[in-house]
Amino acid sequence: MMAEPGQRPVYTCVEWEIDLARRELRRGGELVPLGGRAFEILAELAQAQGQLVTKNDLTKRIWRGVFVEESALRVHIAAIRKALGSDRDMLSTTVGRGYRLLGAWAVRDMDSPLQPAVSELTPSANIPSASFDLIGRTTAIAHLWRLLSAYRVVSLIGPGGIGKTALALEAARTPPPGFQSDRLLVELASLSDPRLVCSAIASALGSKLEGEEILPEAIARAIGSRPLLLILDNCEHVIDAVAHVAEQLVSHCAGTIIVATSREALRIEGEHVYRVPALGVPPEAWHEPAGASAYSAVELFTSRAKALGSNFAPDEQNIGAIAAICRRLDGIPLAIEFAAARAVMLSPPKIAALLDDRFEFLTTGRRTALPRQQTLRATFDWSYDLLPEDEAWLLRQLGIFAGEFQLDAVIAVAGNGGGDVTGQLARLVAKSLVLADIRGESPHYRLLDTTRAYALEKLRAGGEYSDAARRQAKYYSGFFAGAEADSEVKPQAEWLAIYGRHIDNVRTSLDWAFSPDGDAQVGAALTAAAVPLWVQLSLLAECRERAELALARLDPTAANAPRLRMQLSAAHGWSLMYGVGRAREAGPAWAATLQLAEQLGERDYLLRALWGLCIDQFNNGEFRKALEFAKRFAEVVADSGNPVDRMMADRLLATTLHYRGDQRLAYHYIGRTLSRLSDLSARPQVIRFRFDLRVSARYFQVRILWLLGLADQALSVVDQNVEEGRSSGHALTFCSVLGQSACPITFLAGDLDAAERYCTMLLEHTERHPIRLWNVWARAFRSLLISRRGNLATGLPLLRKALELAGEARFLPRFLLLLGELAACLGEAGEVSEGLATVEEALARCEARDEGWYVAELWRIKGELLLLPGEHRSPAGAAQAFDRVFEVARSQGALFWELRAAISVARLRMSEGHPDEARHIIAAACGKFTEGFETADFREARALMAKLVL
């Protein structure tokens, strides 16, 4: 029903009244507080006179064109039920459809005109016009309005400079369609006395309230039922007073909604806290300048710099520097604007270089800004000066942390003088000075980079840095003490989630420990404890450098020095083993580990040392000595109850025998290794021997199976092993899977597409992880693939160059295949003399080292080179070389090399006019195979047989 002019409809039911004009819900004449949106929903239901109103109709009528989720409607329905109290059942729900208001509601008209509670109200909107475009906040503004449709109080919180005020004001300038409330800004930044908060609000309202002290109740009466969006800006220094008045307003002013901007929440009933996000910044590994504008932080820097007259070119160098600036400044708009202002005089790379001294450098804010927003230091001084002394003290201590940290670490760094550290930390989180990640069982905290720089500056200035750094280093020594043991019971992903996130704190602690003011003994202990971290992250170079420094600075007179030296020597040996050009230096480190392990009776490190020395002998070409260490390892674990130790012994024996060329016996030991896989848990065995034992056993199985002529089995294991290696999450293991088996075996199978695919995986993997030795091998292998695809002019020089860059790494067993193929490619390119020299050098190397696995193929390549036209052509010499191939291949059980030799010899016999002999040779070799009939060599053998039959 429509009310006549001068009348206002009121719906009544028993003691309840719904006054549509005053927007009031009353019970027995007393006002019942109810939010604006909730009242509008109740009014719609009352006017429906008991009829069902669907959810869709309610949202369309109440929010008028603004998309909201159904959860927003449910929030207000719950608020209505709460207001109805014991009569909550009057609001009935039809599940899945909508709502109706039950009861005998009558409508009566009130003739008295609606009067404002205060006669001197001046409806207004005092939101200042925007002086610049707000960049990167479109989504945040839409989200804020969705929140305001569901909540009466929304607090925008975040650190200084994040853009809380700018977001609130821009939202007020751009209300959604149908929004009719007044919009008033109350600036509180200049207030020095909390008692002036009500006066500031009254002034913005235009109300002349008299008395020495204006109370929140008077403000509430002044507003009455007036529809109002009230922005309370910069509340942190008067937070208690603001909280009190805001609570009064939402309780008594049904049409009022409040946006508060502050470093911390108001903590009042009905408040929704929205942490204003930083602007989007490019990730650390970002290298796409053309897509820079997709990141709002970069867009802000560029826009502000150009507006101030900067004309830098948007090239890769400048955009990359801007991306780095935005990351270093955590995407905080105010700090980015300060940096952009410097672009008038300095290039972006120069600005990025000067950010280490950001508080002295970023000092050019807008002249019209508040004083605390005119320099970066003033922005942080504002927050810091508001802190009680105990919170300021803790914030300074937190500056010691370079990355994430846990509560235990904070307590340890605070020491005995920290007081209620837990409470202080919670309050710093509430004030947006510390970020909290409460996902998972154990909360983690961190400081924004700029906040940390400020806190660290204060820590140093107060002479507190050294004590805090010492406590931090000791804490992480203890924290990582159980890391290796945890690796035996936790999956790698879980282990890294616990320990991996602390690497930056380990680094800063070590930097302090080995500085002139540090404590080298504490640093040595932390280095030894943190070795599993570098292992799991495959940070080979860092592990080597840290271990070398710790060994050099270790105090030999300290009580725990022998054990520390043993641990550090093992870490040093491992990291050298996989370093480019350093693998041959690992022996002394492993020898020292072995000696100390024997002295200390440390069986665990004895096994590590024997393993390391065995691999070291591979790298040095001493395969006889490698076998001796492998056998000694097997003797030590002969009576071990640990299946990993016994598997490792068999795996070492299989590897050594494979490289020496005894493929049959190698097959026996690798088979025994694999038969024990069921004894392992599903967790990768990484820590002690630095790779996943489950996966590594299979990639040597692939090599052995291939040489034995079991090609189908080998190729099926390749596919399985690549997936397992990838899922293991261990970078070094995955390198070996690709480089030891996937790449070479698919290449030998003639599947160049698969070989190239796996090579690309290895290159990308070694560019993401700092494992340079495998990266060098992958680049050489890619050059070989280019050559084998018929492009010798491009591939051969690249292959030569890659092998030169490999340095001493060329002596590693995996490079032998590349040397043999280099010799073959040289022959095809007409450089027969150099090809023969290369193959002779490789054969001499194998002879000296007892490295037999590739010898048969080297003899075959030599025979093929001797058949090429030119001064070195010698069919007789080639025949002798091929005879040597058969001799070696048959002694090793290497059917694959025998098949290749048969093809070469058959061609030679055909060229000499002996087709029957050629056919017999091919048939004899092929007859030994039970699988692998679709490999490139077998297809070639069949093609030759077909020619010979014809």
Query: How would you describe the shape?
Result: elongated
- Which regions are unreliable across 5 or more consecutive residues at pLDDT < 50? 1-7, 111-123, 682-687
Annotation field: number of helices: 43
Main sheet characteristics: 5 strands, antiparallel
Distance between the termini: 105 Å
Note the main attributes of this structure.
five-stranded antiparallel β-sheet, five-stranded parallel β-sheet, single chain, 15 strands, 950 residues, alpha/beta, Arc Repressor Mutant, subunit A
Description:
The chain is an alpha/beta fold and 950 residues long. Among the domains are: 8-110, Arc Repressor Mutant, subunit A (Orthogonal Bundle), CATH 1.10.10.10; 138-275, Rossmann fold, CATH 3.40.50; 289-380; 488-611. The strands form 4 sheets. Strands 4-3-2-1-8 form a 5-stranded antiparallel β-sheet, covered by helices on one side. A 5-stranded parallel β-sheet has the order 10-11-12-9-13, with helices on both faces. A 3-stranded antiparallel β-sheet has the order 5-7-6. Strand 14 and strand 15 (444-446) form a beta hairpin. Helix 33 packs parallel to helix 35. The chain is elongated.
